[in-house]
Design brief:
Helix 1 runs antiparallel to helix 7 and helix 11 packs across helix 13. Helix content is about 80%, strand content about 0%. The protein is built from 16 helices and no strands. The radius of gyration is 20 Å and the shape is globular.
């Protein structure tokens, strides 16, 4: 971890939030890639990966609105803590099922994807909204950069550890390999819960009394939408992100197919490909945290366009090391897109709207992803890997550059009170 990040850990509340994030994301690295790989391996159908991915995205469409209202109305610590505990218990129950049924039916994979994602969609708006509450305003960018560095480093370490020590179990017993990854992730959620539990109360500033009931929650959410509509750059940002997410959503389905058709089809290969993506992110994240970029919306668009360019190039790279290289390129571009725009949202959106703005971005962006995941199998069957990569990559580039045609979006500036990125 870069030494210039160490001062941010002097803030105890942020340190506990970071430790919880680090432990949980280390466990996620064992689980996510394995889950998608086993979905295809247990059924023999690449379409199953799309169904599993769709069930992971759908909860954001159904529940993000309420999750954002909660994050703006009640103690954010309680939301994160309950989410971690429920996620850990759900994975333990799934692990118990796997212990007695080593080849689970498809419906169990689908249900587990939906349940776990439902719980996590409450965690994410609360966590993002909480960061400015646990560090001084001038440290928000640094905290975001450190958070993204961790978000890259821990999965990278987890994937490397899994590929080196747990993946060999696959040769002996694929289902026990699956069970091991599920249990490691369950334990990681409980570890995260321990540190989240050490946080102080994180209650939103300037809140009105909690309003109960779906009707009043809907009114709160509509109030958040009105706030977004009043800021044109946010409307353009969400539109861009929606199209980008549609284009990127088939990626993991295509990834699994790439591993099967171009390479050896083993889980370790898939993990090393994912590992290379995080290498780029871990290199770039601390650098972005020290940059002096005043126009976060422009860097967001250019970063996403770079990702799309690398994805399109993958179409002509049926070689393991070339795919690794382009993955590293994608990893380098993403922090440039994400870190400044996240800091911009956190310091320019009032605290009592922050959760709802984050939830709208999640709801619309993630809500479109099931469409891409479900049609990925059909695209692969009809046109193959090369066309799939071109559709995804060029679509990402188009979505990113379209936003730059809007003057209000282009001219958005980081608030003077915020640290620049």
């Amino acid at each position: 971890m870069p030494s210039n990040f160490l001062p941010i850990l002097r803030y105890k509340a942020f340190r506990d939030l970071w430790l919880g994030q680090a432990i949980s994301q280390f466990g996620d690295a064992f689980y996510y890639v394995t889950f998608m790989f086993m979905a295809e391996r247990l059924t023999g159908k690449i379409e199953t990966v799309g169904w599993v991915g769709a069930l992971e995205a759908i909860p954001y469409l159904f529940f993000s609105a309420y999750a954002g209202v909660l994050a703006d109305r009640i103690d954010r610590k309680k939301i994160m803590l309950l989410s971690d505990i429920v996620s850990g218990l759900a994975l333990l129950m799934f692990g118990a099922y796997l212990f007695f049924d080593a080849a689970p039916p498809v419906w169990t994979l689908l249900v587990m994807s939906f349940v776990l994602s439902t719980v996590r969609c409450f965690f994410l708006p609360a966590k993002s909204a909480a960061i400015p509450n646990v560090v001084p305003e001038e440290k928000v960018l640094e905290a975001n950069a450190f958070s993204m560095t961790t978000q890259s480093l821990m999965p990278m370490l987890g994937l490397a550890f899994s590929a080196a020590f747990i993946t060999p179990l696959y040769a002996l017993s694929p289902t026990r390999f699956f069970l091991s990854c599920v249990l490691v992730n369950a334990v990681s959620f409980f570890g995260s819960a321990y540190f989240i539990g050490r946080l102080p109360k994180i209650e939103p500033l300037g809140i009105t009394p909690v309003e109960d009931g779906l009707e009043k929650s809907g009114a709160n959410f509509r109030d958040g939408l009105r706030y977004i509509k009043g800021r044109r750059e946010l409307v353009v940002l969400i539109a861009m992100l929606t199209v980008f997410r549609l284009m990127v959503s088939p990626f993991f389905v295509v990834y699994v197919a790439t591993n099967k058709q171009w390479f050896n089809g083993e889980p370790a290969t898939l993990m090393w490909l994912e590992f290379s993506f995080f290498v780029g992110m871990i290199v770039m994240s601390p650098l972005v945290g020290k940059m002096n970029i005043r126009r976060p919306t422009v860097t967001f668009a250019l970063g996403l366009a770079a990702v799309g360019t690398f994805v399109a190039i993958m179409a002509f790279s049926p070689n393991f090391w070339l795919i690794v290289l382009w993955n590293i390129g994608c990893g380098l571009a993403i922090p440039l897109a994400d870190i400044p725009i996240n800091a911009y949202l956190q310091v320019s959106v009032p605290d009592n709207y922050r959760g709802r703005v984050n939830s709208v971005i999640s709801m619309i962006g993630m809500g479109i992803m099931p469409v891409g995941m479900l049609i990925a199998g059909s695209i692969l069957s009809a046109w193959g890997l090369v066309t799939a990569y071109l559709i995804m990559g060029l679509g990402m580039v188009g979505a990113a550059l379209a936003g730059l045609t809007d003057r209000t979006y282009r001219e958005a500036r980081m608030p003077e009170t915020a640290p620049v990125s």
